[in-house]
Amino acid sequence: MRAVSKIPWMALAVGSVTGCSEEKSTDSAVTAAMTATPDAWSAELARRYCENLAGCCDARPTSEQLDRCATAYKTAFSEENARRAARWDAALAGQCLTEVAAVPACATDAQLRMGSASCEQVFDLSRGTAAEGAACAEDLDCAEPQGTSVYCDSVCVHEAASPRGAAGDACGTTCESFGDGASECSGSGVAGAQCYVNDGLYCGADNRCTALAAAGAACDGGVVYCAAGNYCGPESTCTPQRAVGEACGDDGECASGVCDPDAGKCVEPGAAGTPCDDTRDCAAGLTCDADDATGRLVCMAGGDDNREETCRGFSVL
Which range has the worst mean pLDDT, 31-35, 98-102, 161-165, 236-240? Predict the structure, then answer.
């Protein structure tokens, strides 16, 4: 049993870009021909996707490279077109193309996904209409109501998505969301709401969303969570995090989020070019990655890295 992956956006195997071509029109206008059929839409979506990636390159990719890129993405986007045809919505497909064209050039895969809610709905046109409890042969036979995860187990089975909890709500997990839209959760797996530490809550021992413990309160690592600005100290007490220059034994003890293991002191997050072991060692907006010249892990700008990697691997074969 598995949940259906809604959007087949993906990273594709690529080669290198070395040439350039004359500028082509990147007109974002949507015509009826582009959305007349699922196949026409897939081809135009692939072209717009590759035009966005081309913005990563100082020298525009050649026409042949753009064509190979579009062919590869069209193949991916077209996988369920036969199923989409019966429910085709040209207006929705046109809105998808308009939204993708508006995403800033050289976007990451996540930015392109989040930049178009309409595209997600178009991909969902491949879903069937079988209701909960109706016979099915595969996941895509089942209709998927909003806020529900659906799978096929001879019949369509619905699982309600866990809501974001408020104080006092019954819960099963404690979660933390990050700036890139991702989140991490842990807990008992008991059905119920998700309590977010970003909201000042965690899922307590009584399976209720509970306020994070304040300084001086008892704590227990990943069981009883401390409020922001504190860590669970050696006496199992929420303790204020330490300032830069103060002694530490772990990143969580430092207000800066970085404890230098050699010096045993809290330090500021690393600037670009600073050696690192993990992205948490780096200042906001930087990632810890291998330097092309030395092979050593250093803090670097994620956007620049994305441009170089995307352009280096643009030509899809």
Answer: 161-165
* Neighbour tally for 22: CB within 10 Å: 7
Instruction: Map out the domains of the chain as residue ranges.
Output: 32-126, 127-161, 171-240, 251-312
- 29/207 Cα distance (integer angstroms): 52
Show the tokens assigned to 191. 């059905």
Read off the tokens for 85.
Answer: 């045809």
- Of 25, 37, 38, the C-alpha closest to 101 is 25
Render 6-49 in DSSP notation, one character per residue. Answer: --------B-------PPPP------HHHHSSHHHHHHHHHHHH
Give residue 135's pLDDT: 94
Q: What would the mean pLDDT of 192-196 be, rounded to a whole number?
A: 89
pLDDT confidence of residue 294: 81
- Side-chain-side CA neighbours of 305 within 13 Å: the count stands at 15
What is the secondary structure of 255-274 as a DSSP string?
A: TTS-EETTTTEE-PPBPTT-
3-state helix, strand, coil in the chain (%, to 5): 30, 25, 45
Which residue is it, tokens 């002191």? 265
Measured at the CA of 110, the angle between CA 106 and CA 115, to 5 degrees, comes to 80
Closest CA to 10 of 37, 64, 49, 38: 49
How far apart (Å, rounded) are the C-alpha atoms in residues 140 and 267? 51
Asked if 286 contacts 302 with a C-beta cutoff of 8 angstroms, the reply is yes
